[in-house]
Design brief:
- The chain has helices at about 100-105, 130-145, 245-250, 360-365, 515-520, 545-550; strands at about 5-10, 25-35, 40-45, 55-60, 60-65, 70, 75-90, 115-130, 160-175, 180-195, 200-205, 235-240, 255, 265-270, 280-290, 290-300, 305, 315, 320-330, 340, 345, 350, 375-380, 385, 390-400, 410-420, 430-440, 450-455, 465-480, 480-485, 525, 560.
- It has about 550 residues and is mostly beta strands.
């Protein structure tokens, strides 16, 4: 039994039919994930209470949604993910891949196009303000779902038979400030979803190097391919439903597919090529000139094009989508990127830089406008703002290169501000930024599903076959910190020759040292002089005159804050 502990925020009860998940509240709980014989279990309890509050069984029909951000309080958001049970229902509808088949006359048994719509039942929702803790929790739950048993114990009847295979590339590397890639690793995860009548078997053929020249499949089972490369699989891991003997002998994945169950079929590692051009080139730099600071990020997408063999489609460009670049901000500078609003605290949004357009050009030429509006953050495309959940300046770009635009076009984010006398200069900065993006093709591993065969089926030619490729990349990008004389200078001080004539600006120093301020305001000390003590005189007098004089005498209080 494997266990993993993770401190998260969880909803420990299911909402009723009239309730919405948004109307519930967050309960701080401890989530334990354990692997059992019947499947995995999630146990919710408090940190000090050994008795579980609730238990949820993880089956093969369960899955995790994509991690999203949700508002948590007035200061920021948190990472959330849903554990959901998925069932599929046939209904009338047309997918993009079905239009070509309808034009050829491939319709269902009842003469209408159908699709299998997913119906999700949310079992629990988890959240965390720590991105690393959330990612660790997702990895543990995915490992348990991968080992959960799945069987085909009945023979269903479908109006529209369909087989889907999803291939996900996961790539991670470290990129230094010179653009050199190191510590790269990649793996491939394959998922399967089948709706077939009866009790057939699926045979999935990949571009395994051991299978080259030994393929024996029907012509109708061959799928369109975007590459003819053959790759080598390493560290193979299979689901319990896969016939391992058939794979060792024929290098074909043979399974009796569970009905309407989206499950992970296999995992394997690949070795990424060494000297290959990066799909997305990102450079991050911070310039410091005395009290002036500038953050500059440049992003450029390379040219990737492909054409599916066996089809009439022309070559298409493979873009980088859902780009997210996170530049860490020191804690002492966070308030610069925040602003108060009527509902709480918000972030300053970026302004788009429009080349070739100058605002109020006529007024500026006539001298009517003297001041120029200074924007804190400027971007060439996309949106940028500070996100407190990452403690970073986040730049989000939907797609590069854009539609109807060429590749190798650079876009820039520029953030410039000046520190005041009360701002602190950090002793050290975080060394790395993070970059995440996806591509609608397995461009990292070059994995290809070459064929899908449906055996022991009443009409295998009527089975729709669909393959989806996605590549997910993650970069750790080294930030180039430069101390220069002027922010507009193109090069750093160390790279300029004959620097005797130039003077380096003084390093920013705050008006007050935090250590000295803490010592000053730590406590107050009150010293009373000896002649002004609140002691009664030894000789007591009954005269009213002397009593009035004593009451008028006030002690001298000296406050020493040194």
């Amino acid at each position: 039994m494997g266990e993993a502990n993770c401190m998260l925020l969880a909803w420990s009860h299911q909402p009723t039919a009239r309730e919405d998940w948004r109307s519930n509240w967050w309960n701080r709980s401890q989530v334990r994930a354990a692997l059992a014989q019947q499947g995995g279990k999630l146990i919710f309890n408090s940190k000090n209470d050994p008795r579980p509050v609730q238990e949820t069984l993880l089956q093969s029909s369960c899955s995790l949604s994509d991690s999203t951000l949700q508002a948590y309080d007035i200061y920021g958001k948190l990472h959330t993910v849903k554990l959901q049970h998925i069932q599929y229902k046939e209904r009338v509808g047309i997918r993009q891949g079905q239009i070509a088949r309808l034009m050829e006359g491939h319709v269902t048994k009842y003469g209408m196009p159908l699709e299998h719509a997913a119906q999700c039942t949310v079992l629990a929702k988890f959240g965390s303000v720590d991105a690393a803790a959330m990612q660790s929790f997702i990895s543990v739950v995915e490992d348990i779902l991968f080992r959960a048993p799945a069987k085909r114990d009945k023979a269903p009847v479908h109006k529209q038979d369909e087989v889907q295979v999803h291939c996900y590339d996961e790539y991670a590397c470290y990129v230094d400030k010179d653009g050199i890639v190191s510590d790269q690793k990649a793996r491939v995860r394959m998922f399967c979803l089948a709706f077939v009548t009866g009790k057939p078997f699926l045979e999935i053929g990949l571009n395994d190097r051991r299978r080259q020249g030994k393929e024996i499949v029907r012509r109708k089972d061959i799928l369109p391919m975007y590459t003819e490369r053959w790759i080598r699989f390493e560290n193979l891991e299979f689901h319990s439903i896969v016939d391992l003997k058939t794979f060792e002998e024929e290098q074909v994945i043979k399974i009796p597919p569970p009905d309407g169950c989206f499950f992970e079929l296999m995992r394997f590692r690949v070795r990424p090529p060494q000297n290959r051009e990066k799909n997305l080139t990102v450079k991050a730099m911070m310039k410091i000139a005395g009290s002036k600071v500038e953050i500059r990020i440049e992003a450029m997408a390379a040219a990737n094009a492909s054409r599916s063999r066996g089809t009439a489609e022309s070559r298409r460009t493979i873009p980088c989508e859902d780009i997210c670049i996170r530049f860490p901000i020191p804690e002492a500078w966070i308030y610069i990127f925040r602003e108060e609003r009527h509902w709480g605290v918000g972030s300053v949004h970026a302004k788009k830089m429009k080349p070739g357009k100058v605002k109020n050009l006529k007024e500026r030429l006539l001298g009517a406008v003297q001041t120029v509006e200074n924007n804190l953050i400027q971007v060439g495309t996309g949106e940028a703002k500070y996100e407190h959940v990452y403690r970073s300046l986040v730049w989000r770009i939907p797609r590069l290169p854009k539609e109807q635009q060429e590749a190798y076009k650079s876009y820039m984010l520029k953030c410039r501000f000046e520190l005041s006398s009360f701002d602190l200069m950090p002793d050290e900065f975080l060394p790395n930024a993070e970059v995440d993006f996806t591509m609608p093709l397995a461009t990292i591993s070059n994995t290809v599903v070459r064929s899908i065969s449906v055996e022991q089926h009443e009409d295998p030619d009527r089975v729709e076959k669909f393959v989806r490729y996605v590549a997910k990349s993650h970069y750790k990008l080294e930030i180039d910190y430069v101390q220069c004389m002027d922010l507009d200078a193109e090069t750093s001080l160390a790279s300029k020759p004959n620097m005797e004539d130039f003077t380096m600006p003084d390093v920013h120093q705050p008006a007050m040292n935090p250590g000295e301020i803490g010592a000053i305001h730590e406590s107050y000390r009150i010293d009373l002089p000896e002649e002004a003590q609140y002691n009664r005189r030894e000789k007591d007098s009954s005269s009213d005159e002397e009593d009035e004089k004593d009451t008028r005498k006030m002690p001298m209080v000296k406050i020493d804050i040194a």
